[in-house]
Write the structure tokens for this entry.
Amino acid sequence: MNTTTVSQTDFAKSGMFTVATLQKAVAFAVLLLLVVFFSLMSPVFLSWSNAINIMTATSVNAVLGIACTLVIISAGIDLSVGTLMTFCSIIAGVLSINLGLPLWIGIPGALLSGAAVGACSGAIIAYLKIPPFIVTLGFMRALYGLNIVVTSAKPIYFDDQPKYSLISPDSSISALIPGLGIPNAVFVMVLLAIVAAIVLNRTILGRFIYALGSNEEAVRLSGVNVNIWKVGIYALSGMICGIAGLLLSSRLGSAQPAIGMGYELDAIAATVIGGTSLAGGRGTILGTIIGAFIISILSNGLTVLSVADEWKYVATGFILVTAVYVDMRLKYRG
């Protein structure tokens, strides 16, 4: 990327800085309001065991949200993250259980399979010029069917791999601080969020992700191979979906072939609620984490208040539409 393009990208990022900061502030304020509201409505909500439940539920959605954030900032979309997450967990099960290979092969195999599928969808989008919505929708359906075929519609249990639970439900920190009980999945989420934030803000890949979302044609005219970078972004997103698959299957103790459908909606909702623009060019990892906690706290709080599950979807949909509207208004004012 030449100097002119870099300057334009930096200007675009700095010009939207106030908008992005304001959106994160609004999301964080909503998060605090939800915590206060549910705390006043039910003392159970403030219990430590319930806090553990919220953090555990947030970990998978937040990791998938990080995968979506990278793609959406680059002006793409990925509707296959839920079924891809399931596919990666199944690959881990096939390698570690069905084939009897050690975990140090099964876990990297799951991550590499996610990266490979992400690269395939990215290549189709980049080289065949098919809209990301259509490509990833097709991959979502294809992976769903493939998951059923590979497993014969039966779960793969990790009973023969007791150490697999170290990925998510076990709490390593309890050995240092007895009674704390924070599951390892939460630390995986935090570590991944830190690494992803560094990639976005301190590396050439992050610069290209923002640049593609801000003005892809300008990047192309500067001599950059846009197609290669798109493939790389989707491959990275796919590998992160693999991490989510490991977290979920470790928590459940099994790879469930039909569990991934619907997760993509929560992941995209968390990304948008956290301030990532669907038009591309703007977004932060911190905002996505806040958005994921908003969804988890809303769902958990309504459950604690014995509200029917149907209303959880209504509330989440309302917040999502509101977040998109706020994004449009702030972008216009910006």
Residues 3-333 form a domain with the ABC transporter involved in vitamin B12 uptake, BtuC fold (CATH 1.10.3470). The beta strands are 156-157, 254-255. The first strand starts at residue 156 and ends at 157.
